[in-house]
Amino acid sequence: MAIPIHYPSPGGATPHEQLLNCCRDKVAVSAEEEVMIRATFKERHFARNEHILRVGEICPFSVYIVRGVMRDYTTDADGVEQTTRLAFDDYFSGDMHSLSNGVASVYSIQCLEETVGLTIDKAGYDWLFAQVPAFTNVFHYVRNRSFNVALQLMAERSSKSAEQRYLGLLRENPQIFQRVPLKIIASWMGIQPETLSRIRKNITL
Amino acid sequence: MAIPIHYPSPGGATPHEQLLNCCRDKVAVSAEEEVMIRATFKERHFARNEHILRVGEICPFSVYIVRGVMRDYTTDADGVEQTTRLAFDDYFSGDMHSLSNGVASVYSIQCLEETVGLTIDKAGYDWLFAQVPAFTNVFHYVRNRSFNVALQLMAERSSKSAEQRYLGLLRENPQIFQRVPLKIIASWMGIQPETLSRIRKNITL
DNA sequence: ATCCGTTCTTGACTTAAGTCAAGTAGCCTG
DNA sequence: CAGGCTACTTGACTTAAGTCAAGAACGGAT
């Protein structure tokens, strides 16, 4: 199925230029390093609802999201899905532990929109890590920050009510409601869809 | 997720030998790399309740815990502490994002027991990353796994009751109850101390 | 369009966990 | 070996969020 893509990217950047800008926000990238990064990341398009990884598989690649949304989710004993992470434009997705160590992933990853990504497989990843120190640092940066964000969200779940967290989301990330179904936002917030619906009704009154 | 306890260090290993064993569990370490790792990590002892980091400070070092327990915690708007992570023997602690990027930490880290650690500061860390590829991979491994563990715990909070999570902890990590005060375990589980107390009463009946 | 399967909403009711308050038991430290 | 500080427990009560069930609204496929 052909996926309509909305080029150009912001500022007319190509996907690889957007990735390089993302890297340059975090570390210095030399001209030679740029060439290697461009050569290693492959552009790929994913359909809405397409899975790039299912629990138990070995993660085939990490992906820089040029434009789109992906969710990580686990499935509990009763078959209920728990969304643990949402990744939008300019974020990375993939189970790095599974990719690096060749072990089964503990979660699944699915696109929620038609998504344009730049993918890097284990061979490319190992090669780039050995050749391009700057890239190593980008991955450190991204992973360390994601880890801290996850801990912050976990702490917020205990210290704030669902309504307070909803209001915060509405203030800081309103676009999420245009791009992600409410039942998935509810799961990601750690509440039931009915509860989210009632909170929204309450607010708009 | 079982917590290893080594009293004393396994096979009478010195702290640095224990660290090297930890690295070798994950990646190959050459003789030259071993020398550099030994030279970079400094042994330090911390008192019970001592902080190695307070929110807002720049994290001064990362630490490999030879023996002891540390907790990461945030403080919410009402001054209530939320424990987000517990790290025992043979784990790493420290806010890597703060350490690597020189930015303010978003949480505090405190020892819950007298703790023996091997510390590595930013200079040592940058040097080791440039010199010792094996060490880079150890840090990737540790951080990626910690990230996945955090996501799994977050998902469990939604899909299981506090009592189910308590029973799981009791099964897989009973030693935690010998080493960490109940009010901190409660906070880490995302429940109130009173609730934990009632769950425990119920179980032992 | 119109059908079908989601997603979302709403209502009535239940319940797990939180809150407040009081008391007990440990434990350092002087 | 008291005194005071915390940790922990217990009881009574409240409440936020979950559950179950039914209908409405939306969106993709035909």
UniProtKB/TrEMBL annotation, chains A, B:
SUPFAM superfamilies reported in the protein's UniProt record: cAMP-binding domain-like (SSF51206)
What CDD domains does this protein's entry cite? CAP_ED
User: What Gene3D superfamilies does the database record attribute to this sequence?
Assistant: Jelly Rolls
Q: What is this protein called?
A: Crp/Fnr family transcriptional regulator
Please give the organism. Answer: Hymenobacter saemangeumensis
